[in-house]
Amino acid sequence: MTSPLLVAMPGNERLAMELAEAVGFELGGLETRQFPDGETYLRFVTTPKGRSVAIICTLAHPNEKILPLIFSAATARELGASKVGLISPYLAYMRQDRRFKPGEAVTSRQVAHLLSDAFDWLITVDPHLHRYGSLSEIYRIPTRVVHAAPLISQWVKSKVTNPLIIGPDSESEQWVAAVAKDAGAPFSVLEKVRRGDRDVEIKLKNLDAWTGRTPVLVDDIISTGRTMIEAVRLLKSHGWAPPVCIAVHGLFADNSDVFLAQLGAQVVTSNSVPHGTNDIGVGKMLAGALSEFSTISS
Amino acid sequence: MTSPLLVAMPGNERLAMELAEAVGFELGGLETRQFPDGETYLRFVTTPKGRSVAIICTLAHPNEKILPLIFSAATARELGASKVGLISPYLAYMRQDRRFKPGEAVTSRQVAHLLSDAFDWLITVDPHLHRYGSLSEIYRIPTRVVHAAPLISQWVKSKVTNPLIIGPDSESEQWVAAVAKDAGAPFSVLEKVRRGDRDVEIKLKNLDAWTGRTPVLVDDIISTGRTMIEAVRLLKSHGWAPPVCIAVHGLFADNSDVFLAQLGAQVVTSNSVPHGTNDIGVGKMLAGALSEFSTISS
After folding, report:
1. Is there a contact between B223 and A36 if contact means CB atoms under 8 Å apart?
2. pTM of the full predicted structure?
């Protein structure tokens, strides 16, 4: 039987190479370019005929990526792929998870619908599940979730002396506690009041017991980074050492990476979204999920 | 019975107002914005419940537009719309209409599939049908096509003295002949050899019989405008007056509008894609198609 084919959408080549090697998939060639009018040209250079195909595409800035991604999946199928799956290290559109005001689009469901139509299975890293208990509430296809928490713990343990883990809000407490436990560190969480997309007020709990430790702020996503930026400012104003800021997914909207660096924070992210701050590799865990996911070959 | 609702995607407000007034549809409010991370927020301000909904969205630069458009259609349905149709004055992705090389995505079919899933009907202006005989070959929903040729003839008749209509290639001869006939003008077509997306060689036929007329170059689309630009240069080098360049759809990739203007050509387009060169209004014809399209209310 021919081995499964792994195909990278533009910008995902590095992780694709790592994954293909780890799991013994063939790395397939995909030719893509933009026509002068902005339309996408796409061609499978390696034929997917009769093969299981995994397409890797992280979905930061999803609007311009999802259409070409759907083209790839549909083309693989037309060319005779037996199965077509999606590895999306960062899965977008998880935050609009209910109609907060009448008339709103619940885009998380709509994107899940489109991707469930296009793909047979999905693997992702720490999706932003807030009001959903699991991806199966909105995705109709088998899904596997890779958890980066152990990787964060490992990173902290090996790189930070005397860490104090600080989570973004009380809702994240369980996740933060697990990260801290594995890192052998104490933890706290911020008190957070969100007033809008870009307006978040936060407060520090009493951290006197851990004076002298290096604060390590952890979150699943840094987008505008308002929480992180405010937390770094607060910690500095209370005389703490410049913190380390760790996120699974570094989206860095509004130049938040620059602001954090200017405040003296060390920013670290996983490579779920390619960025200069990537220092935590999710490749091995994704490879594990790929190998164990029986849906792919069945 | 409540009147149908017309809703404009961003950038389509002007034509939407004109259309709503012409056909007696209510112009509905749609709130859209981008979250800091690039995701789209979308909300129907006017409820589509129990109503027939027409969404207007021209599709120049389609990649970032199609996802929000699909969100709108899905949301209208979730909110109880009885039917949801699409008015797309410029319909994108019509050019990749077969697999020219093995492995290529036939994106025209894939986009047709997505839009046929999302909408109940489609109205558009002069889609770029090349190898397809009609939209029904790829769209599974009822479609209506508005033809701008009579509007071009009218414009030429009222604005150009002694015109000579020149079409882009022999394949367009029938269309060009019809435009010329209605404008009461003679016509010719260019001889065209396409070598790539941006590389087109053209030749003029013998035009001696019409010396002294104003050349009027017509085409369905100006994208990179290579054909038009070369034709303008050729005509000028043969001593002709600066030509008028007319297209139904002005996409103007690679600043072709600027190049044409620099060569002294007068550029005129329909308002299917909003642009400073718009001088041919398709609103009335779209309104006619909307009024006569029984699918909408049935």
Report:
1. yes
2. 0.94
